[in-house]
Every structure is written in structure tokens, then in C-alpha cells.
Amino acid sequence: MNSLQRIQAVLRGEIPDRLPVLPQSFMFAAQMDGYSIGQINRKPDIMAKCHLNSRERFGYDGCIIDVDDASLAEACGASVVYREDNVAVVKDSEPVLRDLREIDGLSLPDPLRDGRLPEWLEVTERIAEKAGDECFIIGRADQGPFNLLCLLRGAQQFMEDLITEDEEVILHALAWTTKAHVRFAKAQLEAGAHAASMGDAYASPNLISPIAYRKFASPWEKMAVDEVQSREHPYAIHICGDTTGIIKEMGDTGARILEVDWKVDMGKARALVPENTVLMGNINPSDPMYLGTPVQVEAQVKKIIEATRGRGIIVSSGCALGANTKPENVTAMVEAVRKYGSREYLEILQTE
User: Fold this and answer.
1) The pTM is what?
2) What InterPro entries has UniProt attached to this entry (predicted)?
């Protein structure tokens, strides 16, 4: 099996030759080629080369196309702060929306024309052209509906809106941001990605209650899944933090892939989501990937695989690897998956 076939087998519910490993490595990949992500966030040719070089160097199974958390909001009109040594960020002190009712005054972004979205798509196109028949490409469509509205309104102000604003006004604004996200996600697939994904970090239980998630986030995530996902093209949802309290609802969206952060017990997550949902995660990107040792990385990989019995799992980092992640720990991650994710080991785990 090549890398693409390996991940497709997992998505079909089959036992692959070994489990796939696919870290969120865009900042790390840039650093390995001597760049910071801030230096190349408008240079898709270099970004694509960094992804391909890193995958070849370390032997993992695909590329997750990501640049920062600000690009879709920027294409909607948000002010962005560019940082040479780090990702660009939305200027929270200058929100686009002074009132949620202003949402209809914005123009839905065109992914082929507006802001830096064309650069994201060019990265996807270049990687698909070079390696699309052998490695799995996830085209992040930047922020999900809830997160995008936080960035356009200002996170603190939007959290207050959830308490004080008329519910219909909130839902109308979320319908708009869902359309914006779906446009970008579909464009990622058209550019050659095998899957599309969203990040919806502000919908985390670390920031809003599970009740608020069920009312204001998951219905719009499900709408995006319904609009974008197909049999050929799965869709992934990433929410940072400890999502144990909402992981069942995340599974109920129908997304074929759930990206799970490091704070979640993967065994519990496996038990709470549908059998055909693939979990992707969830090695701590800080400790052990940055602070730890290869031995500690191997131990965490082993724990994840054994907790899930290797069922429906793509081993990954729980969130994006930092630029200064130790290369030897990425090597250890890949080697540990080859060791504990082998077909022979999986067959033993799954018959216990």
C-alpha cells in the first residue's frame, strides 16, 4: 500500500498494512527548509516544496494544507497582523462587525480571487500535481462557521452576544459564515485535496458550554459536512482542547474524520463516536513532541493505538506542531506507528 491507499483503507473500515501517520506539520515543515511560516505565507511554491520535502524526509503519509487561522476572515474583510516569525493573526481590536446585523453588508469571499485564499489553493494544487496519487492531502478550509464569526465580530464581543443578542440574529450570522466556509472547502477539493477540513477552536468546551456548542456550533458544522462531504471526499472537524464533553455531538455531525486534541482520552473518544468515524490524533505537540524525547513519543503513540485498538485511527499530533519541534521526535512518531500500527499488531489488538 502507498500512503493514499493506506488512509483510504482506514476510511473504509479496513485494516491497512499499517496505521497511517499524518502530523499537522505546516510550521515544522517550513522550519525544516529554513523558513518561518510568516516568511512564506504568500509564497505557495515554497510552501508546497516544504510540505513535500518534509514528507519525504520523515516518511509520513500526507500533507495538511494550512497557513494560519486568519486567511478566511481576512478575505471577508478582517484586519490582519503579519508576523515574520509566526502565523498571521486577526486584529481582534478592530472587528469587521460592530453588530451582527451588519453581516449582510459583507461580500461572500471568492476563494479563487480574494485575500490569500488563492495561495492556499495553489499549495494544494502543487502538492496534488506532484504527489496526489500517492499521499493523502487534507485541504484545510481555514475556520469553521462559529470560529469565523468570532474573528469577524471579535471573540469577546461574540461571547457576550451569545448571552445578550437575539438568537435569530446569531443564527442568521452563522448561516452566512457557513456559506463562506463551504465555498472555501469546496474549492480545496476542486484544487485536488482528497479531504477538506475546518478548525472551530472557539467552539471548544474550554470557551463555551456543551449546551452552547449544541445550539450555536454543531448544527452549522453539520451543515458544512452535508454540503461538502461525499463518498469520495471525507470532511474533518478540528476543535482544540478537551472535547470529551462534545465528542459525541461532533461525531453526530457525520464528519468522517474528527481531529482530536491531546487532552482527550482516545479510548473514550473511540467509544463515544460512530464506528465508521475515523479519529485523527492525538499526540501532545508540546510535550513530548517539543519538550520530550523519542522514548516518550513512542510511549504516547503506543498508548493511543492500544486505547483505540487501532480501530479507525490516523495517528497525528493533537494540534499543529510548533516550528521548533525536535526532528528526532517526528522520526520517533513515524517509527512508533510503523511498530505498533503494523497489521500483525493490529490483528492482535482487535481480537482481544
Assistant:
1) 0.96
2) Methanogen_methyltrans, UROD/MetE-like_sf, Uroporphyrinogen_deCOase
Average pLDDT on 30-55 reads 97
Q: What is the 8-class DSSP label of residue 322?
A: P
Please provide the CATH number assigned to the domain covering 3-351: 3.20.20.210
Strands 89-90 and 136-143, by their bridges, are unpaired
Residue type, 18: R
Angle between helices 145-153 and 167-190 (to 10 degrees): 120
Instruction: Tell me the H-state helices in the chain.
Output: 3-11, 26-32, 37-40, 44-58, 71-75, 117-131, 145-153, 155-164, 167-190, 210-216, 218-228, 247-252, 266-272, 294-308, 327-340, 343-351
- Longest Cα–Cα distance of the chain, Å, equals 58
Residue type, 170: I
Q: Is 302 exposed, middle or buried (0-12, 13-18, 19+ CB in 10 A)?
A: middle
- Per DSSP bridges, beta strands 80-81 and 89-90 are antiparallel
* pLDDT per position as a tens digit, 182-215: 999 999 999 999 999 999 999 999 999 999 999 9
Chain centroid offset of residue 331 CA? 21
Residue 88's alpha-carbon distances to 34, 42, 67, 80, in angstroms, are 18, 11, 8, 7
Q: How confident is the model at residue 351 (pLDDT cuts 50, 70, 90)?
A: confident
- Segments making up each domain of the chain, as ranges: 3-351
3-class DSSP state of 244:
coil
Distance from C-alpha of 158 to C-alpha of 321, rounded to nearest angstrom? 28
Residues 6+ apart with CB under 8 A from 12: none
What gap in Å lies between CA 316 and CA 245, rounded to an integer? 21
